[in-house]
């Protein structure tokens, strides 16, 4: 089954968009926004309105862009949003968050990956094969795989120092929900892992002596997200172009641990937002997800992201497995 599926992926990859009934029959729900999408990219932000109009035009069709929905934040009463990361005290709800599914077209970057980068868009796709396929031994991950990720980040960002502080293996097909944080499957909710404040606090936590000094230079938090074992067929990861995120779209959520508090951003729906993904992303291709940048000069500071359902996913394909490593990236030593 899996072998047959991989053969299918290969044959599809060799035929690029511009139609063919064979492909369309495999992915009947994909439509083509490709040519106009490219034009909008170069026209940049001024094109958001025409882009939105384009999304509602059914005459433009592509095979690779995915019509789906993403889950966005909606307020509950006027309470300050919070989420417990452990069992809350008796009588207190785990969280007070709600979400709504809104239709979104997630645009495929396959073939134009190099047009996107961390500073302009907040995300970047890099071909960086790993020596590791299995990711079963935590020690090997922390020593050998972390070393690869450090090299990758230094090479892409020219940073002087990289501190990998955490990783998550997503091996389960069961989605990680607000009420089931331990599921370690795809996260189907638009979010950013840290707020600006939590990112700075993290620098203090990991480098208590050096925090003020390193924070006087540029500090970034970047996740390195890699598929494991197979090309991603189910629940790919969508990333949002920073230039299309409005100032009111990010909602700070208190993250309550037994011994401390952090915070993450939940994300309101905004029709201007543009989401992208890399179709059939392979284990040799990583997504760099910027979660924080101390730079305030117009550089992309973060990218909201979420896993999504691709209605064209071959049902027989294996569920997605992935690893994300979280890194503090410093411009100073
Ligand atoms: C991440 C993330 C979710 C997923 O890497 O920060 O949110 O579904 N991943 O892989
Ligand atoms: Fe995340």
Automatic annotation (TrEMBL):
Q: Name the protein family.
A: Belongs to the asaB hydroxylase/desaturase family.
* Species: Lentinus brumalis
- Record protein name field: Methyltransferase
Q: Which GO terms describe its molecular function?
A: oxidoreductase activity
Which InterPro entries does the UniProt record give?
AsaB-like (IPR044053)
- Top-rank taxon of the source lineage equals Eukaryota
């Amino acid at each position: 089954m899996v072998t047959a599926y991989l053969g299918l992926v290969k044959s599809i990859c060799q035929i690029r968009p511009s139609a063919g009934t064979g492909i369309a029959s495999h992915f009947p729900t994909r439509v083509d926004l490709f040519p106009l999408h490219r034009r909008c990219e170069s026209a940049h932000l001024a094109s958001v309105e025409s882009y939105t109009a384009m999304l509602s035009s059914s005459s433009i069709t592509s095979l690779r862009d995915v019509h789906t929905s993403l889950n966005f934040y909606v307020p509950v009463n006027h309470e300050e949003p919070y989420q417990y990361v452990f069992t809350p005290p008796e009588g207190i709800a785990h969280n007070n968050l709600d979400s709504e599914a809104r239709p979104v077209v997630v645009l495929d970057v396959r073939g134009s990956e190099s047009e996107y980068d961390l500073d302009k868009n907040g995300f970047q796709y890099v071909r960086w094969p790993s020596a590791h396929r299995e990711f079963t031994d935590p020690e090997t991950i922390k020593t050998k795989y972390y070393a690869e990720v450090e090299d990758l980040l230094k090479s892409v960002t020219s940073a002087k120092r990289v501190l990998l502080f955490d990783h998550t293996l997503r091996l389960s097909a069961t989605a990680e929900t607000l009420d089931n944080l331990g599921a370690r499957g795809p996260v189907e909710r638009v979010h950013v892992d840290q707020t600006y404040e939590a990112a700075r606090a993290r620098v203090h936590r990991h480098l208590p002596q050096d925090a003020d000094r390193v924070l006087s230079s540029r500090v970034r938090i970047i996740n390195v997200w890699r598929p494991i074992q197979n090309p991603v067929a189910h629940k790919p990861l969508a990333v949002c172009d920073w230039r299309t995120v409005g100032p009111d779209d990010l909602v700070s959520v208190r993250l309550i641990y037994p011994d401390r508090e952090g915070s993450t951003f939940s994300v309101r729906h905004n029709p201007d937002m543009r989401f992208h993904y890399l179709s059939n992303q392979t284990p040799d291709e990583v997504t760099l997800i910027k979660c924080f940048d101390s730079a305030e000069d117009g550089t992309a500071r973060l990218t909201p992201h979420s896993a999504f359902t691709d209605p064209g996913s071959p049902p027989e394909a294996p569920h997605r497995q992935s690893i994300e490593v979280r890194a503090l990236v410093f411009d100073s030593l």
